[in-house]
Amino acid sequence: MQPVLVLGHKNPDNDSICSALAYAYLKQQLDPANTYEAVRLGPLPHETRWVFESYGLKAPAVIPHLHSRVCDAMTEGVISIPAGASLLDAGLLMRERNKRALVVTDSEGKYQGLFTTRMLAELFISELESARSRQETLSECVADYLDDGAYILKPDALLKDATDDILNSPLREAVVLDDDDICIGIVTRTDLARTPRRRVILVDHNEIAQGAPGVADAEVLEIVDHHRIGDIQTLKPIQFINYPLGSTATIVTLEFRRHGVPIPRHIAAALLSAIMTDTVLLKSPTCTPTDKEMAEFLGEAIGVEALQFGIDLFGSRDAASPPTIEAITGADAKEFEVGETTVLIAQYETVSLANILEHEKALTERLEQLVAERGYAFALLLITDVIAEGSQLLLAGDPRIVERVFKVSFAEGSVWVPGILSRKKQVAPRILEYI
After folding, report:
1. Which residues of 310-339 are buried (b: 16+ CB within 10 A; e: fewer)?
2. What does the CA dihedral 333, 20, 277, 275 come to, rounded to 10 degrees?
3. Binning pLDDT at 50, 70 and 90, where does residue 320 land?
4. CB under 8 Å to 89, separation ≥6 — which residues?
């Protein structure tokens, strides 16, 4: 059975990745009968890489989508036979295992072709037109009678793209090969009829626009979030944990405590880092007494002072190699849809605002490119100074809504707005209400 994937939103921030990692660990402790795997939808932010390297954490794998793949539908445990085996050996094996096709392999186990009951029947019919005996036929080599009508697939191919080809192939089934040409499964019409859905748990988001491509086709088992309720729909009731707290990591920490599961030091570090980044060193308007309590609890668990840990964390972002324009505009960028209007609001937090603003022209040009490519009404970038406690606003596209909401003008470029630390509470709701 495929693992349950635990993942955050597109353009993942530190909270999205660390909460997925920690919640996957918690679920594995609570439900060992299933396998839970944390994954991500984009690159690691600098601060996430810092905490992972500092505490020996392995980064979750990147996945491109949640669409059903060939490997989600295929039947594993294929029955194979060496290419040098006789037709008699093949026939007996088919009868014993009740199979209509055998995978034929070479001496290294690599796929050579299929031997099918259809081929065996044609050989027996051909006996009627020749002088060969049944014994002569059955002693011949399987390798000389391979069926070349098998459709070949890779395990990560999209199932929806392969369905028509499988149904139109002579055998109406496909052979799945890995990168070493080893057969790892077969997809039959019965497999296609089941149309498996990938099982997922969503953290730090609950809107389709912010989720992985194909999330609408996946089976959502749980949601853990601290944002507004969005448009994810499920076929049956699920556990949906949604608290008005400053970080999803705070909710995950509460879940560890609720279930009485000890938090390993490396997991505690990841959770603390997520709380500190999402609450901007516990200064954001979204920060609650519960966030502060959980930050203190996690700091004690790993033997650090929470605030100093957060300062070091933010410092690691700017001490690393200079972030690229794409990293600044895309590290924590979220799309919001209201009717037919879609906007992009991104946020980059720093302790070195002046250094980032040296690239203001390139950043604005990148926002303009995103507006042109994706049809946004506007793209807004908040460069948040966590020490000065405010944000520099850069904008591309139609500025009227943002100008009216914040009573600013972008006529001469970006503008500084003091006190703006939270996109979730201070920016997005005000803009979306106005659209």
Report:
1. bbbbbebbbeeeebeeeebbbbbbbbbbee
2. 140
3. low
4. 81, 142
